[in-house]
Design goal:
A: about 260 residues; 2 domains; B: about 240 residues; Rossmann fold; 10 helices; about 35% helix; globular
Chain lengths: ~260, ~240
């Protein structure tokens, strides 16, 4: 199978897409021209760098390089999920870190070890893109679940305190909010299950097809990907809401008002 | 039944980076079966006193005793079952009346179907004998909701009732009926009640004793009628004259 290799000259033409977006921004005075320019440059630098790193990983085939790469990806995902929280009480990094790690590691292990039976398991060609996709979705799910949980507890504080005053544990008191937070974290991956293939061809499948895979093979991969994402998001957000109770309550089932913030 | 005692209780809170004494060396004893009305200007620390009794908050120093036992040594879940609390807003759960009422017992693993008689009893008690327990709590008027909230607390058979401005969101007529209800509950169950209100009239209607608290400090604690006939302190006289806000 052959595919058209993209030269830097041809890629230069693609810059016109960014220029056209800048023109829209200029025409409507959105003030986004600078962001677009910076974004385009950042994307170029970041992707080029990761391209070389991946090339190195692929050539060396050493498990510890792959492990270091995965650790960096995990750290970036956790940092990003923390940054998306409007209030950041003590212990939030650990909460999100453990959740994203457990949710992603479990799902990745099943995909690599049981479904694909990749040998050796650390083969970067499979492990890096699959773990990346899982981490990205776990990160979004964890961030959504935690933000929603905190904001719901804040808004429904009278209800939470009424439950505590009746003898509920902190977890019992926030159970309705936990359910809503889990739902809001899981809904995006469920709606993508509903529309996949109809509205758009997902990135991984598109990439495989361009790279010369048979569409039916690419579809099988994509199915595995959307299923694994649904599981990764569910596991990660469940871990988040389970651990987050400790962020918002003392061990004596008192609300930590300072951890909640105003919205 | 239960006696409550505050022993040199101080509660410090950080507001905008500065530390404030919300309660400052508060000592007071509430004998069992009495209603202590707690009055004072906004932000005086009235609600905080209540929240220390059922450990929704903890004291910075000093002790709150329930029948001689420091509440900080009692399991908070056990404590809160004994010490019921009614808030300014009814804060009912978005469930049916039945589910709201049986919430406390269900936490303890009691089968709700065994609670029908108890549900009827508390609904009678709060003067809602005709209310169908299957209705959604959200359909009720605020006054009815506050009655259900009180009934929900009674389902736990508390020994102490903390009432944090339970009438301030209600119209005058409904308020009066809630106040009467508080008196009825005390005389029927012999519960010790801490009743916080910014309304002097309401305090006088329900209270056996009156505690005036200003800036976290106890100013006066006396028989309620004695206070209204003649406060012993300058601040007490000002408060009665409506000059403290």
């Amino acid at each position: 199978m052959e595919y058209i290799s993209l030269s830097y000259t041809s890629l230069g033409i693609a810059v016109l897409f960014i220029v056209s977006a800048m023109a829209v921004s200029f025409r409507y005075r959105l003030g986004l021209e600078k962001d677009l320019a910076v974004g385009a440059v950042r994307a170029f630098v970041q992707l080029t760098a990761i391209g070389y790193v991946l090339q190195l990983l692929f050539v060396s085939e050493k498990w510890y390089y792959v492990a270091i790469m995965l650790a960096i990806m995990l750290a970036a995902a956790v940092k990003n999920a923390v940054a998306r929280q409007s209030v950041q009480p003590k212990g939030m990094f650990t909460t999100l870190g453990i959740s994203i790690f457990v949710g992603s590691a479990l799902t990745t292990a099943v995909v690599i070890g049981i479904i694909l039976r990749v040998k050796p398991w650390y083969s970067p060609r499979y492990l890096i893109p699959l773990a990346g996709s899982i981490l990205g979705n776990s990160m979004t799910g964890a961030a959504l679940a935690l933000n929603r949980l905190r904001s719901d507890i804040t808004h429904r504080k009278p209800e939470v305190e009424a439950a505590l005053a009746l003898g509920a544990t902190s977890r019992q008191a926030v159970m309705p909010m936990i359910r809503d937070a889990l739902k809001s974290a899981m809904l995006p991956s469920i709606s993508s299950l509903m529309v996949v293939g109809i509205v758009h061809l997902p990135g991984m499948m598109a990439g495989q097809i361009i790279a010369g895979a048979y569409p039916v093979d690419a579809v099988k991969y994509q199915l595995m990907v959307v299923y694994m994402i649904a599981a990764a998001v569910a596991i990660t957000s469940m871990m988040v809401v389970y651990l987050a109770t400790n962020l918002f309550f003392t061990p004596d089932h008192m609300l930590k008002i300072e951890a909640l913030g105003s919205t | 039944m239960a006696r409550i005692e505050f022993l040199s209780v101080t509660k410090t809170r950080s507001i905008d980076g500065k530390m404030y004494n919300v309660l400052d060396d508060v000592s007071v004893a509430i004998e069992e079966g009495t209603i202590l009305a707690i009055g004072g200007p906004s932000g005086a620390g009235k609600s905080t006193m209540l929240r220390l009794v059922n450990r929704l908050e903890s004291a910075t120093s000093g002790n709150v005793l329930l029948d001689g036992v420091d509440v900080s040594t009692i399991d908070p879940i056990e404590l809160r079952r004994k010490v019921g609390m009614v808030f300014q807003l009814p804060s009912l759960f978005p469930l049916t009346i039945q589910e709201n009422l049986t919430y406390g017992p269900r936490l303890r693993g009691v089968d709700p179907s065994s609670l029908e008689a108890k549900v009827r009893e508390v609904l009678d008690m709060v003067d809602l004998p005709d209310l169908s327990p299957g209705r959604s709590a959200g359909e009720l008027s605020v006054g009815q909701q506050q009655r259900v909230a009180i009934a929900r607390t009674l389902m736990n058979e508390p020994e102490v009732l903390l009432m944090d401005e339970p009438t301030s969101a209600l119209d005058p007529t409904t308020s009066k009926s809630i106040l009467k209800l508080v008196c009825d509950i005390k005389s029927k169950y012999g519960i010790t009640v801490l009743f916080v209100s910014h309304s002097l009239e309401h305090s006088r209607l329900v209270g056996d004793r009156f505690l005036l608290i200003v800036d976290g400090k106890v100013i006066e604690e006396s028989d309620i009628e004695a206070f209204f006939r003649g406060p012993q302190t300058e601040l007490g006289r000002k408060f009665l004259a409506g000059e403290l806000k």
